[in-house]
Design a protein that fits this description.
This protein is mainly alpha-helical and 258 residues long. It is built from eleven helices and no strands. It starts with 7 loop residues before the first helix and ends with a helix.
Amino acid sequence: MHQPNITNESLAFSIMLVLVAIFISHKEKLTLEKDIIWSTCRAIVQLLIVGYILKYIFHVDHEILTIAMVMFICFNAAWNARKRSKYIEKVFVTAFIAITSSTLLTLLILIITKAIVFTPMQVIPITGMIAGNAMIAVGLCFNNLGQRFSNQQQQIQEMLSLGATPKTASISIIRDSIRASLIPTIDSAKTVGIVSLPGMMSGLIFAGVDPLEAVKYQIMVTFMLLATASLSTILTGYMTYLKFYNNRHQLLINTLNK
């Protein structure tokens, strides 16, 4: 079977795809040319750096370096997820705990069940997929919580005035936010194999692996993404809602009216 081989020349020619996007942006006056160029250059630099780092880690094959890379991925995922929190500040710790806990638990189950082996070549790519999906779910949860608390201030105030605790007044918002945050992951699981052939499956098939073997890996990935997204958003929802109240269990109106 012919193995894929991307030469430097073919990679250079592929830049024409970016030029097409720039041309469309310019022609339609979308003013996205600078953003496209900057994001392209940044992606190239980041990927090259990561490529050299991974090459070194895979060569050394040391447990400490593997764990350090896993934590580095979780840290960056949490750092980016907290940017979606427009109504409350200082949520990085919450995002880090939610993403790291769900990621490590999923990795632990995969390793214990021998679905993967604790080697950097398997653990690091899997961590990237898990933490990346958790990052999106946690970011959506932050955003959904903020919007719902802002839109439902009156109802919450009425419930608090009638003696409800912050948890009782917030429980429907927490559940709705978690549910909304899981929709992209659930929809992705519903359409996998029908609408899209995800990265893991496509990559294995592209590398020459038997499609049925690739399907097994993709099923495993689907399971772990659903589990990680669910756990991370649940942790986020129940760790975050109290930040919308002060020490006297009063709703922080000024925060919600930003």
